Amino acid sequence: MLGGALKSLQIGTAVINQDTQYSVDVAISSVDLSKSILLFSYRYNNGLYDINVCVGGNLTSPTNIHFERVSYSYGTIYIQWYVLELNGATVQRGQYYKDPDTTANINIAISSVDTSKTIVLPLSWRTSDGSGWRGLGMDISRAYLTSPTNLFIDPDRFATSPWYRIEWQIVTFN
């Protein structure tokens, strides 16, 4: 699979129950965090999608995924997740929170990468008033590499949203 680039693949589901849960932890088989990425999708209630429903997810340890509802409550949320542990790749990850006072370009120092072999996987949320998060989803135009050691986040892409949160995974293939 993927020319031997995939060491392991774990697939599963999780549920965040309506009005009783704001997060859920999922136990997984141990992975090397420096070589693993988390991908997921979600829906609520009867399979609908709404920009007001937002879920964040992170690999918090080699054996745990943490999902959280970071939005208004619109019902039970169903999550389909994938953890890919890669051979011949290195993964960096992090989060950034922008407040209304941040208007300058956002540059985040990262460990040096070969930009010709690297992809950025951002996941972002926004809010207009700071009271609740709304999903924007993955958008590669909001976060990209400007050099081998810099991740750039474009604040102009969030002009109507004074608050936002972006999580990112940077994958470098050897």
Describe it:
The protein is mainly β and 174 residues long. The chain folds into 2 domains: 1-87, Sandwich (Immunoglobulin-like), CATH 2.60.40; 89-174. It is built from no helices and 13 strands. The strands form 4 sheets. A 4-stranded antiparallel sheet has the order 7-13-9-10, with no helix packed on it. Strands 1-6-3 form a 3-stranded antiparallel sheet, with no helix packed on it. The chain is flat, with a radius of gyration of 16 Å. Mean pLDDT is 80; it is low at 130-140.
What keywords describe this structure?
single chain, 174 residues, mainly beta, Immunoglobulin-like, 2 domains, four-stranded antiparallel sheet, three-stranded antiparallel sheet, flat
Furnish the topology, listing elements before pairings:
Elements: E1 6-16, E2 23-27, E3 36-44, E4 55-61, E5 64-69, E6 77-86, E7 89-98, E8 106-109, E9 118-127, E10 134-137, E11 143-147, E12 150-153, E13 163-173
Antiparallel strand pairs: 1-6, 2-5, 3-6, 4-5, 7-13, 8-12, 9-10, 9-13, 11-12
Q: What strand line-up does the widest sheet have?
A: 7-13-9-10
Low-confidence stretches: 130-140
Annotated CATH architecture of the largest domain: Sandwich
Strand content: over 45%
Count up the helices.
0
Return the domain count: 2
Q: Please estimate the helix content.
A: under 10%
